[in-house]
Write a structure and sequence with these properties.
Layout: H1 10-23, E1 28-34, H2 35-44, E2 54-61, H3 63-66, H4 69-79, E3 84-88, H5 102-107, E4 111-114, H6 118-127, E5 132-139, H7 144-156, E6 162-169, H8 171-180, E7 188-192, H9 193-199, H10 205-211, E8 215-218, H11 222-238, E9 243-245, H12 257-266, E10 267-274, E11 278-287, H13 296-299, H14 315-319, H15 351-363
Parallel strand pairs: 1-2, 1-7, 3-4, 3-5, 5-6, 7-8, 8-9
Antiparallel strand pairs: 6-11, 10-11
Helix pairs in contact: 1-11, 2-15, 6-7, 7-12
């Protein structure tokens, strides 16, 4: 396929693999932050092309996976209310809450609709002024501009029956949380290209300097990832700790300034709880006071709902790169995509889902 096959050329992949083998003299642990990169690594066997001294671990870069359990419970509570149309991207519907998921609410008669943009949800609100329409605003910096635009338009157009349930998280504070953890063993990072398309990579420069780790902004195709690994390993072998951009066809240093301005206009930075990890200071977004009328959490008074994680799920350790999916006792046994214990098994970007889909023959348990 044009524009895709060129980034999946097996000969070039072998050449990059050979170059990585050639320059590697020491052990290195690299973390890819993005769940999309995790799936590409496992699907295409990129980790199997690397020297034994290089280990890839998977980071907290799946927005569905890090949405806290209590946010799922709040979504379930709102979606179960009379006269509410609850809109969401499809991958959130099967994420388990403490009692049920959104699919269960839909099966029980809740008006839950899958949309492909928050602006689709805003259109639903225009078409159904007698209903309260809520959009589940989940994501990293990548989806924040679209959600900000929906809220901005709702306020400008006087659409009072539209609100969003905010679960926005930010990548740089998550990287710092990993690096400052007592369990940290990460030597370098592959940063998510789509986040940096919006935000640029200037925010990573003080992190690389402070923690003495290379950070390479990387795309999502096999050759992107292999080149990103090569650049990261080369820095480590040379004793450099810089931010480099592999994904030059999409990412610039400063990013998309108009998108950043819109996000800053509608949202402000706040502390945010991450599923399986806990609260990370200044790691999320919330609506500014002038847009609070469109805050579903306040409108439906569900902010008091809290809950505890399943003790059988180690997704928090997986999201921090401490464990890998197949090291979980529940993997492939108590926990499957059909009966998941955590979001990492059901999300299209979840590490557990990637291992189950592409390597379940190797790792699947029958217990």
């Amino acid at each position: 396929m044009k524009y895709l096959d060129e980034y999946r050329d097996p000969k070039l992949a072998q050449q990059l693999s050979a170059e990585i083998h050639k320059i590697t003299t020491k052990p290195h642990v690299l973390m890819e932050v993005c769940g999309g990169q995790t799936h590409a690594i496992v699907k295409f066997g990129i980790d199997e092309l690397l020297p034994e001294r290089i280990e890839l671990v998977h980071g907290p870069g799946c927005p569905v996976c890090v949405t806290p359990l209590e946010l799922i419970d709040r979504a379930v509570a709102i979606a179960s209310m009379k006269d509410v149309i609850f809109c969401s991207f499809g991958d959130m519907l099967r994420v388990p809450g403490s009692q049920k998921d959104l699919f269960s609410v839909k099966a029980e008669g809740g008006d839950i609709r899958i949309v492909y943009s928050p602006l689709d949800a805003l259109k639903v609100a225009r078409e159904h002024p007698e209903k309260q329409v809520v959009f589940f605003a989940v994501g990293f910096e990548t989806t924040a501009p679209g959600n900000a635009m929906a809220v901005y338009q709702a306020k400008e157009q006087g659409i009072t029956n539209f609100s969003i349930l905010v679960s926005h998280v930010l990548v740089p504070p998550a990287i710092e949380a990993v690096l400052s953890s007592e369990n940290n063993r990460i030597n370098g990072f592959l940063a998510a290209g789509h986040v940096c398309t919006v935000m640029g990579y200037w925010e990573y420069e003080p992190i690389a300097k402070k923690y003495q780790v290379p950070i390479v902004v990387t795309g999502f195709e096999p050759l992107d990832i292999l080149q990103g690994i090569y650049m990261c390993v080369k820095q480590l072998e040379e004793g450099r700790f810089e931010v480099e951009n592999q994904y030059t066809r999409s990412v610039s240093h400063d990013g998309n300034k108009p998108a950043q301005a819109l996000v800053e206009k509608v949202f402000c930075v706040s502390s945010r709880k991450w599923r399986g990890i806990g609260e990370i200071p200044q790691s999320g977004l919330c609506l500014r006071d002038e847009y609070k009328d469109h805050d579903a959490e306040a409108r439906f008074d569900v902010g008091q709902l809290t809950t505890e994680e399943s003790p059988d799920c180690i997704s928090g350790l997986i999201l921090q790169g401490v464990k890998k999916p197949h090291e979980c006792p529940a993997f492939g046994g108590k926990c499957t995509p059909e009966k998941p214990l955590g979001a990492t098994m059901v999300s299209s970007e979840g590490a557990c889902a990637a291992y189950y889909r592409y390597r379940k023959i190797e790792y699947k348990r029958v217990s």
